[in-house]
Amino acid sequence: MSSESDPLIAARRAIDRRRRRERRQRRRARRMRVRVAWAVAYVAVLNAAAWFSLETPAELLTVDYMLNPDKVEHMLVFFAAAVVAIPVLGRWISGGILAVLLMNAGLVIEMIQAFDPGRSADIADFAFDQIGVALGWLVSIPIRRRLQREQQAGSVPARTA
């Protein structure tokens, strides 16, 4: 009886494969938790920088001021940017990183407006930029998954690297 046909050896190999797969899954989950923690910390620091850099009087942070069309426009523009950029560029870079980059772009835009006398840098604009990016990121998740399934099925050409 050869060692290849021995059921005990085959069972041990199957158990070893399962254990290796489980270890890989645990490592991936751990790496994902670390990435999420770093992303949350980065966005918190980004918001703190915006809060201390952009001066917004308290009277501007009222419900009436927050519901004006300018704030909705900020949210819609960044929503559209996220919905378009994440599935399109998601082939090369993760959606979470793209969302953080879009949030950075919102802060940079507000910081540039602080130096233009005809414009105003507003923390509320930045907050609505972030809301738009977050909503766009959530909407783009199923879009990316559908594109990935189509790519795997062969209906979309695979990327070349």
Question: TL;DR?
Answer:
The chain has 161 residues and is mainly alpha-helical. It has helices at 7-53, 63-66, 69-89, 95-114, 123-153.
Identify low-pLDDT runs: none
Secondary-structure element sequence? HHHHH
- The computed structural class is mainly alpha
Count the beta strands: 0
Q: What would you say this structure looks like, in words?
A:
This protein has 161 residues and is mainly alpha-helical. 76% of the residues lie in helices and 0% in strands. It has helices spanning 7-53, 63-66, 69-89, 95-114, 123-153. Helix 3 (69-89) packs parallel to helix 5 (123-153) and helix 4 (95-114) packs antiparallel against helix 5 (123-153). The longest helix is centred in the N-terminal third of the chain and has 47 residues, at 7-53. The chain is elongated, with a radius of gyration of 23 Å. The N and C termini lie far apart (48 Å).
Topology:
Layout: H1 7-53, H2 63-66, H3 69-89, H4 95-114, H5 123-153
Keywords:
161 residues; mainly alpha; 5 helices; elongated
